[in-house]
Amino acid sequence: MRNGSAFRIVIAAGARRSIGAASGRRRSSTCPMEAALARYEQVQRHVIDARYLGDYKVWLEFNDGRKGVVDLSDDLYGENFESLRDRLRFAEFYLDYGLATIAWDHGADFAPDYLYDKLSAMH
Question: Considering the entire predicted model, what is its pTM?
Answer without folding.
Answer: 0.64
